[in-house]
Write a structure and sequence with these properties.
Strand content: 15-25%
Helix content: 40-55%
Strand order of the largest sheet: 1-2-3-4
Distance between the termini: 37 Å
Oligomer: single chain
Number of domains: 1
Radius of gyration: 20 Å
Order of helices and strands: HEHHEEHEEEEH
Length: 179
């Protein structure tokens, strides 16, 4: 019975993957908290000067918090439904009118879902600033849905997703070491 339960759990794990860039999630949460603290301090000491600045700080804080809620889920791959769900913010506009749609403007606050089979091309890029320890790692998906660029603050999470998608979508041959 116990062995049967372990097998069903393993089978279930192989149907759904979740890759979370914890560093990026923590960054968004910290930015939200910092703007909230600045807003509270501003409210306490400078409320009579400019109410518009206070409201702006609170809006920025709330928007970063909602962005954190979207990013903290990470990238979810459901093999049973053959879909991938990603945090918004990396959808590239296909035409000029896309820049003016509400979906494009508020994309940082929603998640996008598309079929894994629609992915036609994947590529990786690195952005490394000289004399800085802050690097960004990008994974780009191109397909029937358009182009999506996912940003990672850790190279390992980006490579993990790239390898997983390569295997799932059979986009490359497995690498054999010491064969």
């Amino acid at each position: 019975m116990e062995q049967e339960q372990k097998f069903s759990l393993k089978e279930e794990l192989l149907k759904r993957y979740q890759i979370i860039d914890a560093k990026l999630s923590l960054q968004r949460l910290m930015i939200s908290f910092i703007f909230l603290v600045i807003g509270v301090v501003f409210y306490k000491y400078a409320i009579n000067y400019n109410f518009l600045i206070l409201i702006s700080l609170l809006i920025v804080s709330i928007s970063f918090f909602f962005n954190f809620l979207i990013i903290k889920e990470g990238v979810v791959i459901d093999l049973e439904k053959n879909i991938i769900t990603i945090p918004g913010g990396g959808v590239v506009a296909n035409k000029i009118s896309d820049f003016f749609t509400l979906r494009y403007i508020f994309q940082h606050f929603i998640r996008f879902t598309f079929a894994i089979a629609e992915i036609r091309l994947m590529s990786m890029q690195n952005t490394i600033k000289p004399y800085s320890q802050h690097s960004k790692y990008y994974l780009t998906f191109n397909g029937d849905f358009g182009t999506v660029v996912l940003k990672f603050l850790t190279k390992g999470k980006r490579d993990e997703l790239y390898s997983l998608m390569t295997v799932i979508n059979k986009m490359g041959e497995p690498i054999l070491i010491n064969s």
